Amino acid sequence: MTNALKEETRAHRDEAKRREWREKGMYLTREQAATGEPCRGCGLPIIDNLGNWPGTMYLTPEQKVEYDADQAKYKETHPNCDAHRWSMSGSRATHCGCCCPPIPMSPEQYENISKILLGSPRREEELDIWERTLTCGHLVEQSVHHTNQLPSFSAAWCPECELTRGVVSLRKTVEAAARMAEAKRKRDD
Known about the structure:
Layout: H1 2-23, H2 30-34, H3 61-77, E1 85-86, E2 95-96, H4 107-118, E3 127-134, E4 139-145, E5 155-158, E6 163-174, H5 176-188
C-alpha cells in the first residue's frame, strides 16, 4: 500500500505539471525549438546544435570535463525531481522530465509510429487480462500481450473515482494461453 500511495502521489504530480504547462502555454512547437527558443522550464536551448555526446567511454578529456560539469549542474538544478531526462538528437542540452515540457513529435515520427501500431492487427486471444486493485479499493482491468510476463502497473485511472490511483495489487484473471487454445479449437471445429 505504501508503494502504491507513493506512485499515486507521483502520478498526481505529473498530471498537475502537464496541466500547468498547458495553462501557462509552456509547450514549444518544433519550429520554435528549431529556431533556438529556450525551454520554458529550464531556460536551456532545446536544440543547441552542439551535436550528440559520444558514449561516455569515448569522451575526450576536454569533453569529459564539460560533460561532468553539465551533469553536476543538472543535479544541482533538479535535486528532488526524481524524473527521467530527455534531449533532442544533435543537442547536448539535457532536460528534466518533471520541469521541462517536451516538444511534439514530428509528422514523420507520427507516421512511422502509426505504421507500426496500425500495421499489426490486435489479436484478442494473445492478450492476458490483469485485474488491478487500486488504493481506493476499486478494481480495473488491463489487457496485456502474453509475452509481458509481469507488467509494471504502478498507477491507473479509476473510472469510478475519476482520479489516477496507485495499484496495490494485481492478478491475472484471463490467460492468453487458454484464449489461444479456445480460438484454435473454434478454428478446428
